[in-house]
Amino acid sequence: MDIRHLHYFLQVAHHKSFTKAAQSLYITQPTISKMIKSIEEELGVVLFNRSGKQVELTDAGQVIFAQAQDIVHSFQHLSVELDDLIHLKKGRITIGLPPMIGSSFFPRVLGKFREQYPDIVIQLVEDGAKKVEEHVEKGLLDIGVVLSPANEALFHSFSLVEEKLMLLVHPSHRLAEQEKVKLSELHQEFFVFFRKDFALHDRVIAECVRAGFQPQVVYESSQWDFISEMVAANLGIALLPEPICRELDRNRIRVLPLVDPVIPWHLVMIWRKDRYLSFAAREWLRFTQDLFG
């Protein structure tokens, strides 16, 4: 017995006639009679009293009728829900991203996506790139934004942004008037860093070590605006991504190009290779990939 059998049964019960039910379903009367007979044989009960001009439900038929209504209604609701998902009328996506992205270009991307898909809910989880990658791997997030390179064995990915880190110093700093600064010139400075669970933390330390020194970290934070305020208070220097630096008050902070080496800030969007992605998540990936080229 399948959902079609129950639908035919309900039509006979509603019309109290095999003939009228068959007409409403655009099938022959023998076909629907055979269908009801097969249900009765499968369940071992008689569903209709066929002795009068109108067929009437038996006591067993009334029990089946109550359950069949709920089952058919639930199936129809399921079909509508699935149709909505497939045609992207609704859905939910969980996306992990580092806090520094939230106030730069990402809101504009979200705004454009929402214009096209107003009923798709996007849950944003802000965390360091290391945590984001870990949570995508574990299936706690559908999609994540992390620093390149991503683990190619686990993730599909595509590029979002390719920029670089800039140096932030107080206007009174000895390097404030230089046109550019070599990383090796910062060997005696006090750094304000992102926390250890941020990929930038390890990336900057590794570059400093390659330049011949271990950076002196005096403060760590998860928020770029707090880091920039620490620099504005002359409590240390910092390295932040170029898009964030464009939003800073240049009267309170000097932003200088960092060279030798240039430290790239390359963001990629990742998702697991071996996990199912919802229709909404797949459309988000298509949308953002088209947007970022």
From TrEMBL:
Key words, A-Z: DNA-binding, Transcription, Transcription regulation
Location of the HTH lysR-type domain: 1-58
Record carries keyword Transcription: yes
Any Pfam family: LysR_substrate
Coiled-coil boundaries: none
Superkingdom of the source species: Bacteria
Transmembrane segments: none
Signal peptide per UniProt: none
Family in the record: Belongs to the LysR transcriptional regulatory family.
PANTHER family found in the cross-reference section: HTH-TYPE TRANSCRIPTIONAL REGULATOR YBHD, NITROGEN ASSIMILATION TRANSCRIPTIONAL ACTIVATOR-RELATED
Name of the molecule in the record: LysR family regulatory protein CidR
Organism: Bacillus badius
